[in-house]
Amino acid sequence: MTRAADPHLAQPADGAGQADGAVRPDDVVRPDDPELAARAAELVRDAVLGDLARRVVAECGADVGLVGVPEPLPGSRPGSEGMVLRHWAGTRADLLHDVPVPAGLGLGGRALAERAPTWVPDYRAATTISHHYDAAVAAEDLYAMLTVPLMDGGAVHGVVYASLRTVVPFGDVRIAAVGKLAAAATLALAGAASWNRAMPRPAAPVRPLTPREHEVLRWAATGRTNPEIAARLGLTCNTVTGYLKAAMHKLGVRNRTELALTARESGLLG
Predict the structure, then answer these.
(1) Based on C-alpha coordinates, what's the Rg of the chain?
(2) What tens digit of pLDDT does each residue of 58-74 get?
(3) Predicted confidence (pLDDT) per residue in 206-229, tens digit
(4) What DSSP string describes 170-208?
(5) Euclidean distance between CA atoms 255 and 144, whole angstroms
(6) 11 CB neighbour count, 10 Å cutoff
(7) Which pTM does this prediction carry?
(8) Distance from first CA to last CA of the chain, Å, rounded?
(9) Strand bridging mode 145-152 / 118-120
């Protein structure tokens, strides 16, 4: 039902506006408003990711589509990665709704950590993943599962799941179909994020990184894990974690995704 317009609301309080009394768009929306740009980017993100979950079911032959969105997880260590399953299609219950997934746990957490697609023909029997979410997966009667990260450079915009209620190996055709949807969604999200980044913001002083912090940051922005960076630079994992935490603190960010975006925007990655 559409609510009738109140004629009193059409008149600006100070008499400003067009001659006919209508409120001009510029009185409400300013094109250089950073808050508006951030809200627009958020709305586009939700629409794109929600549509992605539905399309995985409608176009890729999946029984269930899920999308995890990178977010700081309650109780997690500073700088640790994680996501929350915010979008879904085809589910029968709600055990997979709004589920927090730390990087490395389950199939989606593994895709988030490794920055690469992962799949198993039978989730419940798989030996290459953790089984923290077996109860929720069993409640949905899911077996075969494919997860694909939405990658934009070194940043992850989300992870899409395509799940089936049968044991079946994922063939190249289905993997490619989900990958194409993920790539299209990533392109749309990157475009929306650029609106937000293009808005003028007050410059904040940035404490300079040490050469070692800068070096570790550059490798982290390429998607390398802490153990990979440690092995490449001859450091311990704890030392790499310390450098990344220091870089995050200096740049005022909360996780690796924000770190990569801020470093790229600040020109720290060349």
Answers:
(1) 22
(2) 999 999 999 999 988 88
(3) 578 898 998 888 888 877 888 989
(4) PPHHHHHHHHHHHHHHHHHHHHHHHHHHHS-------PP
(5) 31
(6) 14
(7) 0.63
(8) 54
(9) antiparallel
